[in-house]
Amino acid sequence: MFDTHVNLHAEAFSEDLDEVLARARTAGVTRFLAICDRYDNYDRVKSIANEHPDIWNTVGVHPHHAKDFTDLTSDLLVAAANDEKTVAIGETGLDFHYGYSNEADQVANFRRHISAARDTGLPLVVHTREADELTADILEDEYARGAFGILLHCYTGGQDLADRGLALGAYVSVSGILSFKSARDVRSVIETVPLDRIILETDCPYLAPVPYRGRRNEPSYLPYVADALASLTGRERAEITSICEANALNLFKKLTAS
């Protein structure tokens, strides 16, 4: 299995990261994508990836932190992406739930990342919350200027964003949210996504799946995300994990080329 979204530099893992990774490998996780949420965390994220042959990383600024990196240029992201372990741009996008950064800063940040994804040929890891229409509008506008790979990560959006993203060739990742009883709307959308466009993630240390909901999440819980998708699609876990791993490797092409 490939856990395509792990926040391994998080404080929650500061005391026992080696043990967390060992449990994940025992559970069958063979690849990890360590996510960069702030540009000033990039060196830390990259160092974790460099220490482990089965971990790769991204470079980017989460929309919450857009206000802190208004001077960040797409050229800086492109330069960072030259590192062999850096296989995607992001996470980036729009999040209007908390409003930690204003809309203008988030939009500018998002477009800079899209430019870097287009210039490098690396996929864009998109975080979106309560911003479906504007996210889709920006993706379509930018895609018309030149194609780039898209991952709608930890998908909780509506049907329209999913449909518009899929029309641009986007992949959709599912997390432990898929197993929550309250996530009926998410499941109804994911049911419409072609299985060859779905990948798995934990988004650890957040969003632990049932039966661990409410605890610190970790990559060893990825099989439970797979179980939720298997239940939704009427397939066996092994088939789901095989399909989703192949999808992830197709999306993150630099990973297999490195």
TrEMBL record:
<dbReference type="InterPro" id="IPR001130">
    <property type="entry name" value="TatD-like"/>
</dbReference>
<dbReference type="Pfam" id="PF01026">
    <property type="entry name" value="TatD_DNase"/>
</dbReference>
<dbReference type="InterPro" id="IPR018228">
    <property type="entry name" value="DNase_TatD-rel_CS"/>
</dbReference>
<keyword id="KW-0479">Metal-binding</keyword>
<dbReference type="InterPro" id="IPR032466">
    <property type="entry name" value="Metal_Hydrolase"/>
</dbReference>
<dbReference type="InterPro" id="IPR015991">
    <property type="entry name" value="TatD/YcfH-like"/>
</dbReference>
<keyword id="KW-0378">Hydrolase</keyword>
<protein>
    <submittedName>
        <fullName>LuxR family transcriptional regulator</fullName>
    </submittedName>
</protein>
<comment type="similarity">
    <text>Belongs to the metallo-dependent hydrolases superfamily. TatD-type hydrolase family.</text>
</comment>
